C-alpha cells in the first residue's frame, strides 16, 4: 500500500454551483466574522466574552488569543498576531490550502474533501499538536506563548 487514498469516483449528482455552495458560503462566513473582529476590538476586556477554559481553570487553551490574532492580522500586525496565538497564525496557510483544495475538488466534482489516506490519523495529529501547544504555553518555559 502506498499510503494514498483509493481514487474516488466523481460526484456528479449536483450542479457545479451546488457543489461550490458550501465552501463559498464557509468563506463568506469567515469573511463576515473577520470583518466583525476588525471593527469590534477583542483586545478590549469583555468585548467578545471570555474563554470558558480560562474562566474555569485559569489556563490558556489552544484557541486563547485567536480573536486578538485575527484582529491584529486585519490591521496587518503579524507580530501582534503571533504574540496572541502563534499556533493560529502558523495554521492559517494550512487552513487556506485545505480550503483551496476543497474548492478545487468541488469544482471538479471529485469525491472527498481531501484525498488523504487515514484521515483519522490526521485528526489525531492535529489534536496532539493543539494539546502540546496548550501544555507548553501554560508552563513557565512557554510563557512567551501565553495569550
What's the short version?
It contains 6 helices and no strands. Helix 1 packs across helix 3, helix 3 runs antiparallel to helix 4 and helix 4 crosses helix 5.
Task: Give an account of the 3D structure.
The protein is mainly alpha-helical and 147 residues long. It is globular and about 50 Å long.
Given as residue ranges, the uncertain stretches (5+ residues, pLDDT < 50) are none
- Largest sheet geometry: none
Task: Calculate the mean pLDDT score and round it.
Answer: 88
Shape assignment = globular
Order of helices and strands: HHHHHH
Give me the count of strands: 0
User: Radius of gyration, Cα only, in angstroms?
Assistant: 18 Å
User: What is the share of helical residues?
Assistant: 55-70%
Q: State the secondary-structure class.
A: mainly alpha
**How many H/I helices?**
6
**Beta-strand share of residues:** under 5%
Compute the separation of the termini in Å.
43 Å
Which features does this protein show?
147 residues, mainly alpha, 6 helices, 0% strand
Topology of this structure?
Blueprint: H1 16-39, H2 52-57, H3 66-74, H4 78-84, H5 86-108, H6 119-137
Amino acid at each position: 500500500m502506498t499510503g494514498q487514498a483509493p481514487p474516488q469516483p466523481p460526484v456528479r449528482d449536483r450542479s457545479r454551483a451546488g457543489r461550490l455552495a458550501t465552501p463559498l458560503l464557509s468563506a463568506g462566513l469567515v469573511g463576515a466574522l473577520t470583518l466583525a473582529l476588525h471593527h469590534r476590538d477583542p483586545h478590549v476586556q469583555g468585548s467578545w466574552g471570555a474563554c470558558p477554559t480560562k474562566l474555569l481553570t485559569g489556563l490558556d487553551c489552544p484557541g486563547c488569543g485567536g480573536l486578538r490574532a485575527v484582529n491584529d492580522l486585519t490591521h496587518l500586525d503579524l507580530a501582534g498576531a503571533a504574540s496572541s496565538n502563534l499556533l493560529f497564525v502558523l495554521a492559517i496557510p494550512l487552513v487556506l490550502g485545505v480550503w483551496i483544495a476543497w474548492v478545487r475538488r468541488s469544482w471538479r466534482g471529485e469525491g472527498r474533501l481531501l484525498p488523504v489516506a487515514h484521515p483519522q490519523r490526521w485528526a489525531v495529529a492535529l489534536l496532539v499538536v493543539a494539546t502540546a501547544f496548550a501544555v507548553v504555553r501554560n508552563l513557565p518555559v512557554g510563557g512567551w506563548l501565553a495569550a
